Sequence to fold (280 residues):
Amino acid sequence: MKHLEDKVKDNRIGLNHLRVHKQGVTVCILPYFGKMKVSDVKFSDVEAFKSFIIKSRNYSARSVKTRLSTLRAMEEFAKKRGMVKGQVISEACRELSPVGCGKIETFTPEQVQTLLTVSSKLYSGCSPRVRDMMECFVNISAFCGLRLGEIMGLTVKNIDINKRIIHVRHSLTDFDLLKAPKTKSGIRDVPMPVRVRDLLRSWIEQHYVENERGLIFRNETGTQVRQQNFHKWYWPRLLERAGLRVRGQKNLHFHALSTSPLAGWLSMDCRYPRWLRCWA
Fold:
């Protein structure tokens, strides 16, 4: 953990990367392996550990993969420093790690249409500012393919209203830090339809709160709109109002919007469905 904390200070990894590994160590790895020497761990121990976290924590395939990745990183750290000779854990993690993380569900065009309509309407207990924010988020994700962190990381300088271009250059982390995309393809210029341009212009004119970084979407006090609150309160309520939330089942993730087919239609005006033309 000290090694990872030093890497954070040197900007080699982000705070979220540190948090994920720290949580894996304290919540899962230490309780299970805490009294064992790394050199004594066998393949069967890693296999039993995987079964343990699936049963006791009810982890998804993605979470299991993350925990095994942390365990593997610990052994690799020890190997590089001559603390262990073999790489039993790493080999076991490669073999036992889930190949996929389950089918990623996305929205149908009709469901996106419903979300676009519902997000533009006020409801009991909702302020006009929250309604406008959710309408912006849904439209930007559906039409321009931006993920939540990228939307929250948009600055005034990133938006070219006249040319209708969004310059995606970074995303906002849970720690309110701007970070660059993981790959070069994450840095991109995205065209936006007239509807998105008008929504962004209206938001900036009515709700933009001055801040040093020029971040467009902030709370009224200038603080961060936390992703945890977004996924706990705003997004589930929108799904429920759209009739897309089934109690007892996992909600469709907001990121599923960014993979909707609407963004691909931006450059093909003639192929817009009729209902879509009023937005595009």
Observations:
- Residues 52 and 79 are 25 Å apart (CA to CA).
